[in-house]
Every structure is written in C-alpha cells, then in structure tokens.
Structure prediction request, 425 residues.
Amino acid sequence: MRARLALLAAAVGVLVLTAFLVPLALLVRTVAADRATVRATAETQSLVPVVGTADPQTVRLTVEQLAAESGRPISVFLPDGTVLGAPVPRTPAVALAARGQSLTAESADGREVVIAVQGRPDGTAVIRTVVPRSQLTAGVTRAWLVLALLGVLLVLVGLVVADRLARTLVRPITELSAVSHRLASAELDARVTPAGPAELREVAGALNHLAGRIQVLLREEREQVADLSHRLRTPLTVLRLEAESLRDPDDAARLTTAVDGLERAVTGLIRQARWRSSTRDGRGGCDAAAVVGERVAFWSVLAEDTGRTVTLDLAPGPLPVGVADDELAAAVDALLGNVFAHTPDGTPFTVRLARDAGQVALTVADSGPGMPAGPVRRGASRAGSTGLGLDIADRAARAGGGRLELRGGPDGGTVALLRLGPPQP
Prediction:
C-alpha cells in the first residue's frame, strides 16, 4: 500500500510539475531571445545619429568600434549602395527598411534587426545587425537545468511527504492484520492500540471489543461445559458404590475399572474446558503405543463378553504423536465404540498401529456390514447414533497434524485410518 501511495503521489507530482514547468521553460526561452534582441536593437539605434549626419569614413569607424564591442556583425547600407561595416548582401529585410520601415526578421543565422535612418540628403540609410542563435538562447540551458532539478526536488519532497502519510495509514492497518491473525490463532488477549485516522481508530476499537466479547463467550461456554461435566460426578459416585457392593469380585473390579475410566474422561473434560492453554492449539503430545494398548485392553473385556476376536498389532514404542493422551484415548474409544455399536456380536476386528511416512497410522478394521452411504457430519448419523464419535476422532487427527480416512474393507466391513503427526516443537 505504501508503494502504491508513493506511486500515486509521484504521478500526480510529475503531472502538476509538467503542467507548470513546460510553459515556464518556454517562457524562459522567449524572454532570453527578447532580451538579446532588445539589447541589439538599443545598441544599433545608438548609431542612428551618426549614420544620419556623419560622413562615410566617420560612420565606418563608429560601426567597426561598436561591432568589436558587441561581438555582432553590423552593416550600414548607404543610399548610393555603399556598404560600411560587415560586407553582406542586401537582404529582403534591408530592402524593406530602405523604404523607411524598421523591423526584425528571422534568418538562417539568427534574428535580423534592421533600422531605417532618414534625414540624409542622399536618401534613407539602413543599419543592419544579426543576433546569433547562441545569444538568443544564452542562459536558457542553465535555466532549464535549474527548473529540472527543482522539479525533481519537488517530486522527491512529495514522495517523502506521501511516504510519511502512507506510513500513518499502513502501520495501523498492519497492526490490525497482525492482531486479527493472533486472534485467529487463539491468542485472545491480543489487542490493538488505536492509531491513525479516525476511521482506523474506530476499526481498532471494534476489533478490541470483538476480542473481548469472544473471550467472554468462550469463558461462559467453558464454564457451562465444566459445570455440566461436574454434575456427572454424583451419578459416577453412585455407580462406584454400586460396583463396590457387588458380590462377585470380578464383576466389581470390571465395573469399578469402567467407572474409573469414565471419571478420568470427565476430569479431563473439565480440565480441558477450564484450563485450556492460550497457545497456538493448546495441545501436547503422548505415546500413541501406550494409549492405544491401554484402550484396546479396556475394550478387550467387552469384546470377550460379546464373542468378538480382537487382533492387535502394535509397533514397538514409543510412538510420539502431537495430540494429548486424553484426546487420543477419546478418539480410540470412538472408533472402537463404533465397531461395537454398528456390528453384530461375534464380529471380529483388528487394531493396527504402525509408523507410516513420518506419521503414526492407527487402523481399526472390522468385518461388519460396513458404513451407510453418504458423508458423515458432526451431529448427524445414519445408524441411530449421535454422530459425534467420528467427529471426535477427526478433530483429534487434525489436532495432531493428520487426518481421518474412512473406506470399505476388501472383504466388506469398515476400515478407519487415523493418521497422526509428530509432536510440534
């Protein structure tokens, strides 16, 4: 923007200066020519008394002396045809002046000045001189150079002033852009210092108000999520007491483990809602091998109860990924939960975790009927669920610098591929 404003100022300055300096330069040339012509005419007219009254010898001496002083050729044409001074042929201007008319005419050598002298007994004499072109343009080149330098100087001054004015506009706009990018990167404490014209200060104030309003809305939303999650602790406590009161130790242990996992998920949700970092994404990293192994072990108990065969293929760890352990655990639970929710009992499934081109790839494949046709969107499901499970997995994948891929298996069923990138430094 500064460059465009400077270019605009330069263009306007050049046009304005051209409109003024070109006529001024022509005027300087005309004035110089007229000044040389007036000087030559005045010097020539000083000969009129001598030419009108003196004898030819006196006229010759006077003409030669004036020609030597002025540096211009001077000739006197007497009525009898005698030419005194510079020997030149009679020109049309001289012939016209012999009839009693003084004039100035342009010639190949410069500007010709002829003066008719009347009062001689033998007729009208004519005094002729020529102003060379070097005298007609004396000082014009220097004046033009001065005008050109003045024009360049004025353009440069205009550019400096335009740049200063542009800086007062560009700097607040740049700050507005930087703060908007910081807000987009979750730096909600970023604010703009109002500066520049009134319109930009108003925009800065509006952006600061918007940032503050976003902070308030997010704080209220997180508090509501935290409060809702906290309310789940009471029924969880009841479930724990009910599990501990079971007579079968195995059932009590299994239910207690499930309640512990649910309580950890609720605690993680509260912590994430209330104490989320204000950094770029607020996420850490974890060992994918440990998290996936722990969650598969948890679901293996339910798989055994429903007659499902679980095939687990874990690459040797650690496998660091750029997503927090609770979010990765939630994504794995969502994928495995879909297998249990949308395939009949006894349907086998496979969980594979491996390195793949600098990323970690988690594959969950089942031999069920496959996914319904159509895209899967958050909150929408074609299989009677909430439609949030795959969205949780997809958000975890994107948070970890990867993506979620869904496709059909070679022998039917569904293959969910969760790609996760390495932790960010």
